[in-house]
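Slide 14.
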Amino acid sequence: MHTEILILAWGAVLLLVHIFVAGHYKTKQYGTQWNIGARDEALPPLEPIAGRLVRAQANFAETFPIAIVALLGVVLAGRTSDMTVMGGWIWLGARAAYLPAYWAGLKGVRTAIFMVSLVGLILVLWPLLAP
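Slide 15: predicted structure.
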């Protein structure tokens, strides 16, 4: 199996972590009845930590499809290399660090980590874009 596929699988695990951590904090604020219900009622704004976790989840969900295209793309195109593996691990490591940084409200650090993840994605995408 290509390492890029393994990285994608761990990315899917990380998405599940995002979903469950954010869901836990939302349920903690809104209650179990909200969680098991239809969620039709208007709700007060999320508390700061829950809000950060929901935004971190949304950010990951926005960028994960790019990682899927890049990592799966290099495998399907036969363009895998040490650079695509390194880029994939950089992306995954940075995305794993992003969640606790956002959770803790580390201003600036979160953005720097996000930028590192983009560098990782570029390393993976480059072989698909280069002639």
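Speaker note: The mean pLDDT is 96.
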